[in-house]
Amino acid sequence: MPSKRTRLIAGNWKMNNDLNEAKDLAQALVAALPEIPEGVEVCVCPPTVDLRVVSCKGGVKESPIKLGAQNVYWEASGAYTGETSVAMLKSVPVEYCIIGHSERRDYFKETDEDENKKAKALIAGGIVPIFCCGESLETREAGEHVAFVTAQIKAGLEGVEISSGDQLVIAYEPIWAIGTGKTATADDAQEVCGAIRATLVEIFGQEIADGIRVLYGGSAKPENIAGFLEKEDVDGALVGGASLKADSFAAMVEKAGE
Ligand SMILES: O=C(CO)COP(=O)(O)O
Question: Using CA atoms, how far apart are residues 136 and 53, in angstroms rounded to an integer?
Answer without folding.
Answer: 35
